Structure formats: C-alpha cells, structure tokens
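Is magnesium ion placement plausible here? Inputs below.
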Amino acid sequence: MLARIIIAAVLLVALGFIPIAGWLRFGLYMAAYFIIGYDILIKAGKGIKNRQVFDESFLMAIATIGAIGLAIYEKSGDYTEAIAVMLFYQVGEWFQSYAVGKSRRNISELMDIRPDYANLYKDGVIERVDPDEVEIGSTIVVNPGEKVPIDGVIIEGNSSLNTSALTGESLPRDAKSGDEIISGCINMSGVLKIETTREFGESTVSKILDLVENASSRKSKSENFISKFARIYTPAVCTGAVLLAVAPPLVRLFAMDLPASWETWVYRALTFLVASCPCALVISIPLSFFAGIGGASKEGVLVKGSNYLETLSKTKIVVFDKTGTLTQGVFEVSGIHHSKMENEKLLEYAALAESASSHPISRSLQRAYGKELDQSRAENIQEISGNGVMATVDGLRIAVGNDKLMEHLGIEYIPCRSVGTIIHIAIDGKYAGHIVISDVVKPQSKGAIESLKSAGIQKTVMLTGDTASVAERVAGELGIDQVYSQLLPGDKVEKVEELIKSKPEKSKLAFVGDGINDAPVLSRADIGIAMGAMGSDAAIEAADVVLMDDNPMKISKAIKISKKCLGIVYQNIVFAIGIKLLCLLLVAMGLAGMWLAIFADVGVMIIAVLNAIRALFVRKI
Ligand code: ADP
Ligand code: MG
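Reply from A.M.:
I modeled the complex. Tokens:
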C-alpha cells in the first residue's frame, strides 16, 4: 500500500512539471489514477453488484470518475484533483489500518498472558507439552521467568509471582508450598512444582482471554447509533448531491433566466460526495471502546463489553455485598460460648458439617479447627443459602447457622451479646452452643467508598445476610449511606429491584459482590461487578465486570475509566459530525473545493483515531 501511495504521489508531482498534452497526458494521468485507486474501483463495483451501493468506496469512485469526466468535458486536462483525492483517501485508509492494527497489537500484548507450553513432570522426567494436554491432578514445573500455564496448588518450592498482567498490581506476591496459584502470573525467582486443579480451558488464563476477545462483540448504544446513523446518512447525502447537481441549474435556467452552468454544480455535487465520507465516526467509536476495555484490563478490571462500559459511566448508586466484598471474608474465631462439650469438639462438628461449603464462614471454621478433616464422616450435607448448613456427622444431626436457622428448626438458642457473626450449633435438635467469629474489613474499603463519592456516586448501600449489629458497625466504619441486614439471597434481589425502581430513570445501579450466593443479584443489577476472587467461577460468569484482585478501590477506577472512554466517544461524535456538516455546507455554497473536502475528511479521521487511542491510557486515573 505504502509503495502504491509513493509511486502515485511521485507520478503526480512529475506530471505537473512535464509539459505534455493530448492522449499521452491523459494516459499517464490515468495510469497514476489506477495505481492508486484500482482497489477502490473494484470495491465500488462489487458494492453495486451486491446492491450495497452506498459505501465509502462508492462515494470515492463516483466523485473521482465524475471529476475526470468533467475535466474531459471541459477540455481542461486537469486530472490532478481526482488523483489527489484518491491519494489522500488512501493515505487516510493506510494510516487508519496502521493505527488500528497497532492499538490492537498493543492491547493483545498487554494481555500477553497466554502460555505456550507446560512442563509436565512425570516419573522424574520433565516433558514440554501443550497446556491443553495436561490433565487435572498432573504435576507441572514452572521455572523462573516462565508463565504459570494452568491453575493449581504449589506442592514444592518458594517464589515470588508477578501478577501485573492479571491485576495491574506491580508489587510481586510471595508464593510458597501449599498456596493456590493461578495461571497467567509470571514466576520470578524459584522453581515451582504445581499440582494442577483445573484443565487449561477452565483455567483463569483461558477465561480471561475468552472474556477480552469476546468483549467487543457486545455493542454499546453509541455503536448501534453509528450503524443506524450510517444507514440513513449515506442515502441522504447521495440524494443531497443529486439535488445539488440538478436543482440549482434548473432554477437558474427556468426561473432566473441565467445560464445553467451545469459544470459548476456537478462539480459541487461531486465534492459534496467526497466531503460526506463518514469514516472518522465509523472507525473511531469502536476503537475508543476497544481501547477503553484494553486500558481497563491492564489495570486488572475486566469489562465484558462496550455496553457495560457505557452503563458503568452512568452509574450513580453502588450496592455492596458485605462478606468477601467489603470485608476479607476471613473470619477469626473470637469466642466459643455455652458449649455443651469440649470447645474443640464443638468446633470439630461445625467444621465437619461445613466441610463441603465454599462459604467464607465454612473455610474459616475449617481453618480454626486446624486439623485434617475426614470428609467421609459428614453425610447428607444440605446448605441453606443465607442461613447455614445441616449435615449428619457420625450419625448425629448437626445444624450450623444463624438465628434464622435455629428459629426455622424450632430450636431454642441463647442469643449472644458479643459483636460478631454468631454461628449457633445444634446437635440432634438440641442446642449445643455458639461460636463467635469476626471478619476484618479490607484495608482498602474505606478509601474505596470515599473515592466512589469523588467519582460522582450519589449513594452507597450495603446488603448483608449478617446481623444488624455487625452490619451497622461495618457500615459506620466505612461511611456507607444505607444498610440492610439479615437478608436472604432472595431478599437481596428484591432490595436491588426496589432501589432500581426508586432511582431516577437515566442513572444506573451497580451491584458489587463476591459471587458466593449473590450471583442472582449480580445479574439483576444494571451492572454486576464481581470480585474475581482469583478465579471464582460463579463470579466471573455472572458478572459484567470482574475485578481481578478483589480490591474495592478498583470500582471507582473502573467508573472513572468508563467516563473517560465515553467522554472520548462523545467528543469524537460531536467533532466528526460537526466538521462534516460544516464542510458540506461550505461545499454546497461553493466555498470549498475537492481538495479541502478530502483534507478535512482525512484530518478529522486522524484526529479522531488519535483521540480514541487516548482511552487506552488509564494508569493515572
Ligand atoms: P453476606 O450477605 O454478608 O455476604 P451471606 O448471605 O453469605 O452473607 O450469609 C448471611 C449469613 O448466613 C451469615 O452471616 C451466616 O450467619 C449465615 N450463613 C450463611 N452461610 C453459612 C454457612 N455456610 N455456615 C454458617 N452460617 C452461614
Ligand atoms: Mg456474600
């Protein structure tokens, strides 16, 4: 392409200095014209054949052929204009494909987390294989400098991990034997032996890549607006051009008794067509969204589509789940009261009954118990969302949960005055005591709420299944505007629906959760934001936006990124349409020629594309 542009440009300049006339002159100019424009002419021809007439190639072809025809008719021999127009148009196209290609490459480089191989360790031998071929439970070795290809658990070795491609966090994270490890991090220092817990296709890396690759297929309203706009716009300008060519001469001829001057008006109509090319809009809007999504993912915020970026920018209310979202979800046991047996025995029963649950409470109880659990002792496990669990352990019916669970089972319980989450335990229908556990607020939560206010959020709300006393304390500490406590997962959906109904029409509501028993709320909210919990499937699936490092600070960051991106989109729309209308007006009045029209078109396109690329740079926000 670049070669064609240069040859045509040189030929054009040279012809300007060579005084030849007649057929030779025409032939040489035509040679330059075809060198630079043959593909456009072919495209235009194909468009006509497929009855999709009104596209850019068609506009350019008609305008330039028209200009050449006019030059022949006027015997002026001035073909320069037609060729120059084609030349500039091609320069614009070339720049556009260069810039778009470059920014796409940039983004995929940023997302350069796809591992090429895995070192499979088997019977003392290491073999380099395709990550796809590694089965769950295999052992893989990751050397320093390599990407972790598959999710798993470290069974040998210590190292620090660079997770910046996943979370945007630049500080390395320490990893030791026994830790879970997710794919996509880079191993920095030590050799790690990992037992895989997922297949490659189910691993974090694959999921993220899927998300990012499919993000651009979900179109935003602004993008849909552009395609609708193009459908009306092109036929409209074509009609306009025909009118411009025909109406004024006829009026002059019949109403004003003047010479028709067909050439002038046909020329203006052709120029009008050149000026009308909508390429700046068509290219820059999707590019802006693409760049915005890319920039966000660089910061550890995965946005699943342009439409979500748009919704995010209009968000005025943010609703939070408590456990695992604002708090760490890592409970410490702070007391065991009224136990009818050894404290440790009570804890053991509770931990066994909880052994199948993935709720943060369950994990904390298991950790507090500290010893190996024989899962086979627990049978008939039944988890009641937002209440607790019931199970048969060593033949005894164990119920572990909150006040509501006890009331539901008709068991009299002893209320607790300590502040914390109270876990009652009943054995064979009789009360056996309670465990008080308390959760720690994430260190970034307070700052996160403050920065949401500065990002223009009008109201923050916290929903929780926990008791009022814990809820009030956390909300007070963080400065949250409204709290609703003791909600079952279903109640949370209802509350969110109420909040959606009572808010102004245009503003949007975001729900932020950890994906554990709040997936329905995540999908009900205008926009669902999930803590990626470093690979929690439920969250990644149900949410529209995923925060890779569970840091609530990233919520306001995501909102600011979306606002910047949408700002750029609107700037481009207004700028491109504004200049376009101005040009069309100037052309119709005969104040601007074809040169100026194409200059304006290519110029607007370049500025719009450069502006779009700005959406990629979000680090400082
Ligand atoms: P949150 O809304 O804060 O995320 P959940 O809806 O997950 O809380 O749980 C609400 C309450 O239900 C908890 O505070 C706890 O009392 C009880 N609960 C839920 N799951 C369990 C469980 N696995 N074991 C014991 N109690 C549970
Ligand atoms: Mg929760």
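Short version: The mean pLDDT is 87.
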